[in-house]
Amino acid sequence: CERQDGRPFRQRLLVVANRLPVSAVRRGEDSWSLEISAGGLVTALLGVKEFEARWIGWAGVNVPDEIGQKALTKALAEKRCIPVFLDEEIVHQYYNGYCNNILWPLFHYLGLPQEDRLATTRSFQSQFAAYKKANQMFADVVNMHYEEGDVVWCHDYHLMYLPECLKKHNTNMKVGWFLHTPFPSSEIHRTLPSRSELLRSVLAADLVGFHTYDYARHFVSACTRILGFEGTPEGVEDQGRLTRVAAFPIGIDSERFIRALELPQVKEHIKDLKERFSGRKVMLGVDRLDMIKGIPQKILAFEKFLEENPYWRDKVVLLQIAVPTRTDVPEYQKLTSQVHEIVGRINGRFGSLTAVPIHHLDRSLDFHALCALYAVTDVALVTSLRDGMNLVSYEFVACQDAKKGVLILSEFAGAAQSLGAGAILVNPWNITEVAASISQALNMSAEEREKRHQHNFHHVTSHTAQEWAETFVSELNDTVVEAKLRTSK
Ligand code: ADQ
């Protein structure tokens, strides 16, 4: 395909997500320094060669003045990023409020916050109003930059109102929406006061994607039960208008991890870690410090394991790396103190003057340190209470081709559907079962570890992030754009 000017034609992909993949730090009135954060989505889209991706999103900073906004817009343009400027009040109501206080816990089966249970409470209403306003602000920026033939890919629970805003402006726009979290059972979704508005808006998209078939099924059930639309094998249909709904399980850039293990600095790091923990089996947890990740449950299970297996007490160490997130939210502060308290108690109980059973770090690790840790681990513990997919489990497997360690994986993580045959699956709420799985993992024969690892390694290296993005975008391209706006019945 060629343009009139002879240059090869690459379709433009407008990726719209709450956060841009950059951290912006203001250096002066009109100067900014930017750092690209190499998340899964960025790497996935960098690999998609047939599209020219542009990012639209919030830069994560409040920029109230015009000079600052202009300068940041210019700096971001060099990284193919386009900012949406949100003021502090909107961020508070839309992002901290409706997204993180209402949708995030609800979609992970933690229910709605008590004081927001009634649709009539002012806080719920004002947060939902801010959510819609913020989504409209994202839509305005998309509309400003959209050119005919572009494909628009909206991401995650922050932007459920976006497909409708976009289609209202231009019914011909090709719009996809992908959810990175679970979509809960329709019985959970129906407790949400704004349940119908959000479903209708998402259905305005041409293609709606989830990590697993179960989440897609829950979404279709919610549309049939709450909106009275028809669920078909293809998706959701209403008066002859079809919205395609399907599962697109995400992957990682496995080659990036495998290549990193060959770097001298990573090898050096691996050597240090091996020396530091010699004579002990290494167990690892890597999570954002979030209630959905089941960190207290994991640590309590480890305590039970130590209690019941005195033999292992000085022969195993649990490294729990937890990046603090949403630190201004009281529930997250409470979780941090709870985790610290449990870790302190267990270390006091089972530690000695020279060694403790749990090393808990409240911080992020750089990519190379993370790869080295994955590589020296004997048993990884992923005990999410719910998790859309969980990429940590994939990253661990990618770094284990030499060691062939064991993955203990929550059956409530999306990854359980892809790595279930190689992992030991557990119910993270059942502390006794998780403790028993630790024992099973530490005592597993080399043959069984090899067999389980091969299964997972094959999956992780053959279902990559790039393939995920390509599949979604090519299916989106194949959908027929229809006028799908559904007005309230
Ligand atoms: P997250 O909830 O952030 O993502 P996950 O999929 O595990 O969860 O991804 C976390 C990423 O952050 C991984 O790449 C991991 O390496 C990194 N990370 C975590 N802790 C770290 C630490 N201490 N130091 C350095 N890096 C750390 C959401 C959903 C998931 C879904 C993804 C992608 O909640 O279910 O899998 O999006 O769709």
Structure explained in plain terms:
This protein is of the alpha/beta class. 45% of the residues lie in helices and 19% in strands. The strands form 3 sheets. The protein has a 9-stranded mixed beta sheet with strand order 5-4-1-6-7-8-11-10-9, sandwiched between helices. A 6-stranded parallel beta sheet has the order 14-13-12-15-16-17, sandwiched between helices. A two-stranded antiparallel ribbon has the order 2-3. β12, α11 and β13 form a beta-alpha-beta unit. α4 packs across α5, α5 crosses α7 and α10 packs across α13. The site of adenosine-5'-diphosphate-glucose has 19 residues, from β12, β13 and α14. Adenosine-5'-diphosphate-glucose (ADQ) binds next to β12, β13 and α14.
Cα-based radius of gyration, to the nearest Å: 23 Å
Distance between the termini: 44 Å
Bound molecules: adenosine-5'-diphosphate-glucose
- Output the number of helix runs: 18
Helix fraction? 40-55%
CA-based shape: globular
Would you tell me the structural class of the helices and strands?
A: alpha/beta
Query: How is the biggest beta sheet arranged?
Result: 9 strands, mixed
Spans of at least 5 consecutive residues with low confidence: none
Count the E strands: 17
Organism: Hibiscus trionum
EC number: 2.4.1.15
Protein name: alpha,alpha-trehalose-phosphate synthase (UDP-forming)
Enzyme class: transferase
